[in-house]
Design a protein that fits this description.
By secondary structure, the chain is α+β, with helices and mostly antiparallel strands. About 35% of the residues lie in helices and about 25% in strands. Bound molecules: zinc ion (ZN). The site of zinc ion has 6 residues, from loops.
Length: about 600
Amino acid sequence: MDLIISEKEEAGRAIASALGVSEVSDEVNGRRITYFRGSNIIIVPAKGHLYEPLIKKLTFAKLKDLPLTEIKWTVKRSEWVKIDKDAEARIKLIKSLGEQSDQVVVATDWDREGEAIGYNICRFGLGLSSLSDFKRMYFSALTPKYIIQAYNNLREMDETLLVKGLARSIADSIIGLNITKALTLRFKQLYPEVRQAFSLGRVQSPLLAYIVGKVSAEFKVQSSYSEREEVNVKTFLVYKDASVEVYEEIEGEQLSVINVEDVVDEVVQAIPLPNTDDMMEAVKELSPDMLMKTMEQMYLKGWLTYPRTKSRWCPREMLQDIYGELVKYVELTDSFKVDNSPSLREAGEGGKTAITLTPEGIKAYYAGEMSLVERIVAAHVLERMVKTFAPPLRRKITYVVLSDGVGEFKVKWCEDILNNPVEYVSAVVFETFHVREVPRVGDKVRVVKIKDKVKVKKIYQPYELNIVIPTDHSLVEWMTYRGLGTEATRHQFPVTLRTRNYINTLNIPTMLGSKVAEIIEKIGLSADLTAEMESRIEELGKLSELENFKSWIADITRKLVENIRKLSDEDFMFKCPKGHHLQLRQYGIRGNIIGQCSTCAKKYIIT
Ligand SMILES: [Zn+2]
């Protein structure tokens, strides 16, 4: 009997249907759990993380006790210290099914998080702590074909991916939980009436500091004016009805053609299939978070390959499958070929594939089975899918060699694209190609010079309204550029900052957000520091390296906590614009925080 652990329930259902296993449900600890049971296979969905790293003794710690760096992996908590009942029941079921099985197979999503989810269930739930104690199945798409392929090719878990997943959650917990606790303790000393926690995090905090520094609103009146004179001499070569502008100094009034050369070259215009970052950049119609959620849904329906990936690679077989389906709906000339795709030659990421619609996804799109948001995503992917097969662009460039009796020079006379127009996929706008009549050797070409004298006056915008508020897209772009977070997580951080009331729904920082950003800068939790952690995590390859990494993170945490301790009370105080201290009130644990200045008798919305 094989026990297969899937991530989402829908993924479990797709695996079950591919492997011919039927759905059942059991009551465990009063919770109804859906899973899948066949004669030789049982599939249980984990539904995300069942275990999470907590910091021992943190709940009742005082500022002087921090940082605490001993990690304890426990069953996921729902709120504060309460154990998540659903996770607990699921673990109990997995344990009892584990006893009946000969082999455990982790079939969670193919990324760092999926590895960590599966590994933690194996080591804490089933007592299988060595990677050779269980198997892993890897698939890029939830279609029967790829699921069966993966099940027939069980492998050992990818240690390099796993160690990155574990390192990330260790770093997030040690740093995030300790500095959040330290900040909350400092704020609560001053404002005991505020009930919410003041969260800081490795990635969210540098992002908040960036937003606070970026948002601005300026109105300026400032007239500015410049004037200068320009004389331009333009030289044209004229042959029959056409002219070509040239930039050489030419003395005479005519030139003779001494040679004509045609050069045909090929320009690669096919593009690889997209990875997560490419999709974030391309799909502007949806917020990054909405895009990820939609792609995730499409993946679970078997329409899209796994959307959290750095890979632009695609195996030939998969390219052939999607090409074969694509040509049923899209008219492509014979020059569109699987072999044109740069995705064949991209470096693969341990076998993970680029984002592409599956044949089932292409069918669903053209059969009108997708929702509007899914259609938006699918349309973008389809565009890349067609372009990945595009033939090289063949250009014919004609050069004319001219002589004035003394010297000679070569002019690019005209250019033509030889492909069929539908094969010209690289143009964003229609380009004009000059296909002029070409002179023959011995012909004369006239030289025409035109003098053009102009006064250039420039008036700069005198009334300038400049309001900068970053969008989620620009935030994700900035994080990508600075190396913060991963392609799988970046989209979540703007949402997190809104949930914390650090920025409002329009991405404008609240007074609380601005205050926390000030503190982030003072303690040195910078984007550079986080980028350094990310690159250290990327370098990890073995589980044995985790201990060293952990003590490095503990050192960083110690410094950050020390810096929080060193700040004065004044640094944590909310003030009115005139500098008076505000009294804070919070209505309910999730209610707005209001600040009141007793000197000015004015109220301020803190969150
Ligand atoms: Zn005041």
